[in-house]
Write a structure and sequence with these properties.
about 150 residues; mainly alpha; Four Helix Bundle (Hemerythrin (Met), subunit A); heme binding; metal-binding; Cytochrome C556; signal; iron ion binding
Length: about 150
């Protein structure tokens, strides 16, 4: 094996190691829950655009946004195992692990609010605004207690 082959082989091993590190970081609960919150933020942003009249009412967007919130809320509490209290720039408050039952109750409130709004499916801009108010209240309530202020 000449030096070019050795160099290429070493480079491939380094790149493969980096890919493994990135893949394992992506699976960390802190990273997963941050991605889940980004999905909720995106869904809320889509609804806010409609509620503010910046975007036209679109039933498919409303349904997809509410479905995203419902799904995330259902699975979000599963992303807080012991040992994931710190790292990866988490904004999770230690209070989550101190009072997991209340945390799960607040996540369930978001799921219920999204499910209720999804079942009624707001039919216009005003309905979307009302849905945001209801859902946003559950988000804010949880963030007040269980999210670190950065």
């Amino acid at each position: 094996m000449n030096w070019k082959h050795t160099t290429i082989a070493a480079l491939c091993l380094c790149l493969a190691g980096g890919a493994v590190s990135m893949a394992s970081a992506a699976d960390e609960p802190q990273v997963v829950r941050a991605a889940m919150m980004k999905k909720v933020g995106g869904a809320m942003g889509a609804l806010a655009g409609i509620a503010k009249g910046e975007k036209p009412y679109d039933a498919a967007v409303v349904k997809a946004s509410l479905t995203t919130m419902q799904d995330v809320a259902k699975h979000f509490p599963d992303q807080f195992p012991k040992g994931s209290e710190t790292g990866f720039n988490t904004e999770a408050s230690p209070k989550i692990w101190e009072d997991m039952a209340t945390f799960k109750t607040k996540a369930k409130a978001l799921e219920t609010a999204a499910t209720t709004q999804l079942a009624a499916l707001p039919a216009d801009q005003a309905g979307v605004g009302a849905a945001i108010k209801t859902i946003g209240g559950t988000c804010g309530d949880c963030h007040q207690t269980f999210r670190l202020k950065k």
